[in-house]
Amino acid sequence: MIGIHHGYTQSCTRDDLRRAVGAASRVDVDTANKALTIGRSMGYALAKRSEYPVAVLRLGNAYRVVTAELHRVLGIQTEESVASSV
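The chain above was modelled as a monomer; its predicted structure follows.
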């Protein structure tokens, strides 16, 4: 698993991430934390300090992670990235 580990968290596999994310352009920070093996408190602290390892959008009181950035950091190729590299 590629990522940063800051304490206990349930990690997810790339297949888990693909299922959770689907075609969504953004995911919640909790989903991204699991993919990156970052604990919940640490993930929100990093997002609040603008130090999260991928692009985070603040939408009202919620944080959302850009799926394309998450895929890039995790080394997951999507249909779009494969098409653009051809």
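Residues 1-9 have pLDDT under 50 and may be disordered.
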